[in-house]
Amino acid sequence: MMPTGRRRWIGFVLVLALVAGGSAASWLAMLEVSEVQQRHAGLLMDHNADAIQRAVANEASRYTETLADLSAAAAAQSTFTSEDFEVMTSRLNRERLPGASAVSFVVQSQAGEAAETQKYWRERGASHLRLRTAGSADQHYYLIFSRALDTVTPDVGRDLSAAEEPSAALLFARASGSITASHPYVLLKDRKLPSGRQQRSFLLAAPVFRAVGVTGASSGEFMGWMVLSMRGHDFVEETLQAYAGELVKVTLSDLDGTAATAVASTTAPAASLRDPGLRRVRTVRVGERDWQIYVQPTDRLLSDTDRRLPGATLAIGLFVTFLAGGLADSRRRALKRVDLATSALRSDIEQRKAVEARLRESEDQLRHLALHDTLTGLANRALFNERLAHGLRAQSRTGEALAVFFIDLDGFKAVNDGLGHSAGDLLLIESARRLELCARSSDIVARLGGDEFAILAEGLSGAEDTEAIAERIVRSLRTPFDLEGQPVTVSCSVGVAVQEPGVPAHAEALVQAADEAMYAAKSAGKNRYETRRYTHVPPAERAGLPSVS
C-alpha cells in the first residue's frame, strides 16, 4: 500500500500539471482570437483607406476638369470680359466643388505697369477694379475677376505676389502649361479673420493660352490663370467626413519630398487606437503635387464585444483550469464540477466558433468589396485582369477563341455636368444592367472606371459570336434611358480585340488592342464598334507594346 505522504505528493504534482497545462492552453487560445481580430481590423482599415483615396482622387479630378474647361472657354474668347467670366462661372457652387472658396481670373503685370493693367481691364467690364501692388517684386499677380463660393467676399484687385505659395504655383503652371496646386498657406483674404477661423488652404491654377496660328495651347498668347482657391478643413469635412465616420480619423497633408505639411483632419468622436499596425497611408497626385492621406483607426473600429473577446477567452479558460485543479482532491466534487467546467468550455468553444464565423463572413464581404465596383456591383479592374489571365491560360487547353470588349459611353460627361452627378450615377448603373443583358451568362462584365466598361467573352466559336455581342451592346446603349422621369439618350464606342487559338497569350497587349479599337470607333463617328485581331508579339517587342493587326 502506497504511503499517505507519497499519495499526497503525487496528487499535488497532478494538480500543478493540470493548472499549468490549462493556463498555457487558455493563453494560446487568447492569442489566436487576438490574431484573428487583428487581421479582421486590418482588412477593415485597408477597405476604408482605399475608399478614402478614391474619394480624394475623384474630387481632385473634378476640380482639375472644371479648371481646364474654364481655361479653354476663356482662351476661346476673342476679347475676354467680365460678362464672359460671369457666364462661364454662373453654375459653379459648393455642392459641385466641396471646400472651394472662390474661382478667379488672375493676370501677370510687370512692376510699374499697374495703372495700364487696371485701365485695360476696366474697359473690359471690371469698372470698379483698383489694383493694389504688394512689395517691390518685378512681377505682380492681380486678381481681376472672382466669384465667391462661400460667405467671404473676394478681394478683387489684390496682388497675390504678397504670398510666396500662390506665386510659385502660378509661375510653375505657366511654365509647364499644366494645372498646378500650391503649397498649403492661409488665403490672403482670410488673414484678416480671427486666428480660430483661419485654415490651411491651397489653390489650383490653370494657365490660359490663346492659340495664335500654332498648334498647342501652351505655345500661344498667354492671358493669365484661372484659379480655384480651396480651404483645407472645409474640403476634408465636406468630402472625407462621410467616408471616415466614427471608425477612422483622416489627416490630409501636402508632401514636399519626404516632409509632410498637415492641411486638415476629420473630426472623430472616438479616441484613436494606438496600434501602428492598423495605420494606413495613401498618396494621391493632384496638380503636380503629392497629397498624403493618413488614416488612423478609432476605438469604434471594433465593437465593445469584439474588443473584450480575447480577455473573456483567457478569463474563461483560467476559470475552468483553476476550477478543475482546485477540485482534484475530491473525486465526487471533481466529477460534479468537471461537468460544470465542461459545459462552460463547450459554451466558450461555441462562442469562439460564432466569432470566427462572423470574421470569415466579414473577410468574404471585404474581398467582394475589393473586387467589385461599389456603384454598379460589376467586377472591377482587378477582378477583370484576374479572370482575363485565367481565361488566357485555359485557352491553351480548350482551343477556343476569346475576346475583350472595351466600351466607352458617348455623351456621359454632358449628362453628368448638365443633370448632376446623381443622374450620372443612375446612367452608369442602368448602363451596367444593360451590358449584363447583352453579355452571355458565362461572360465577365466589369466597370474599369468613370464611364469605361469591359466584357471578357470566352469559348467563342467564330467572328459571328463576337459581332453579335458587339451589335447588341451598341443597339442596347443607344436606346433612350429614363433617369427618374428625365429622358436621356447616349451612345457608345466599342473596341473588340480577339485572341485567336494558337497565338501566344499576352493579356496586356490584348487589352491595349481593345482600347485602340475603341478609340478607332470613337474617331470614326461613335455609336459603332471596331474589331482588332491580336496576332502575335514579335520577340523584339515582348518587353514593350504588342503588335496588333
TrEMBL record:
Which compartment or compartments is the protein found in? Answer: Membrane
Domain CHASE: from-to ranges? 76-294
The domain of life is: Bacteria
One Pfam assignment: GGDEF
| Residue ranges constituting the GGDEF domain according to the UniProt record | 400-534
Q: Which UniProt keywords apply?
A: Membrane, Transmembrane, Transmembrane helix
This chain's protein is named Sensor domain-containing diguanylate cyclase
The organism of origin for this protein? Paractinoplanes ovalisporus
